[in-house]
Amino acid sequence: MNSVADFSSAPVEMHRAPDCSDEEWRLRCQLAECYHLIDYMGWTETIFNHISARLPGPAHHYLVNPFGLNYTEITPANLLKVDLDGHKLQESPYDGNPAGFALHAAIHAAREDVQCVIHTHTTPLSAVAQKQAGFDHNNFYGAQLYGRVGYHSFEGITLFADEKERMVASLGDKHILVLRNHGIAVAEGSIAKAFFLLWTVQRAGEIQCASAALPGPDTQLPDAIKTKCMELTAMLIREGDFANKFFDAMVRKMRAERGPSW
């Protein structure tokens, strides 16, 4: 079970709307924490990029950030609830970022196993996305991504509905989508799992960029070892509480240094 902090003492304006279910409020609280964590880790792109969480139900409605707010200004209450066309389902003074709807709506509509999608443009990951070879799977973190990465050719800013089908095809049944010459998106079955996957991808990119700057050949890992690393990591995430423990630990660390998130 995903844990979440007690928000019962939050200011009145933070409290949920009367029609907000317990499940939706839990997701709102955890998604808001995720936005603050992305800022805390230094992975933001000012007010740009997006994190979404799909709500339970057949309609595939999802929560996403109000465009124009810093990630540190996002709260459970001001997250937007939208449909697959990006239409707001509740009144809000904010609109969403149109560039996010095509990517997030496409994945949420196509992948029942995905609850959370995180899109970033960090320098290491954008650098890897620009390289023809993409991710190197010969470092500790890169090996864990072996066989989990799809690649999508750059078509410009993702504003147009006709690109959705091609992005979904590029992702396939994988959990990491490299948007070539752009950035990356990770898609997982919970907010905690998506955050942990993003952390792993980010570390893989950082080490790849650092190792590329050093002289001499890299030590190559056999495909069997890469496969073993990927499968063991997937098992830990699938069968244990690994991602939740990591997410909660990072929230505690962030709060200890910054105080309450909102």
Automatic annotation (TrEMBL):
Entry protein name: Ribulose-phosphate 3-epimerase
Cellular component GO terms, alphabetical: cytoskeleton
Domain Class II aldolase/adducin N-terminal: 29-209
InterPro entries to which the protein is assigned, alphabetical: Aldolase-II_Adducin_sf, Aldolase_II/adducin_N, Aldolase_II/adducin_N_sf
Single GO term (MF): actin filament binding
UniProt source species: Lampropedia cohaerens
Family: Belongs to the aldolase class II family.
One Pfam family it belongs to: Aldolase_II
